């Protein structure tokens, strides 16, 4: 088989994703999916696996989770069907007056077909299981939404806290500047006596010229 080295096209990525998702749903391995896609695209299974893990997989995270759920539902349905078949076989061939215990326990006896009532009961049980899974899924979605809302609220509070901290820093700086001005005022008042006024001090601070006050 010729091994390709060219870039992957969008159609090839879609084929790879669909095949892998199908194999996940059916309970098969991803390696088997890579081998199937590799034969179709004339690429190696390793190249398909690398492409899936490096590029394609992250685009189908929700689809992967859904495929896993479908795999679980399929496995559960098959297990329930086998259980019903086993129970129906035991019921059909157990000693009941017409058949003795040895005949009923023989592993070579044919499997009795399911009755309509058994099929209905099985489907009802399966439906209840699906409804329970749907309820769990809805609860999970609700919790995800609540988590997203709390994260948004947390981000808003963090931003508000940052603004308050910035405002506090500004107020602190203004306070320190005012303390320095008052200290300067007391110093000039002691030096200049009645000729000095607070208004002159603020004017001097604004103009950056304290020496002019001392000689005014």
TrEMBL record:
> What is a single Pfam family found in this protein's UniProt entry?
Myb_DNA-bind_6
Coiled-coil region(s)? 53-87, 126-174
Keywords, sorted A to Z: Coiled coil
Could you tell me what this protein is called? Transcriptional activator
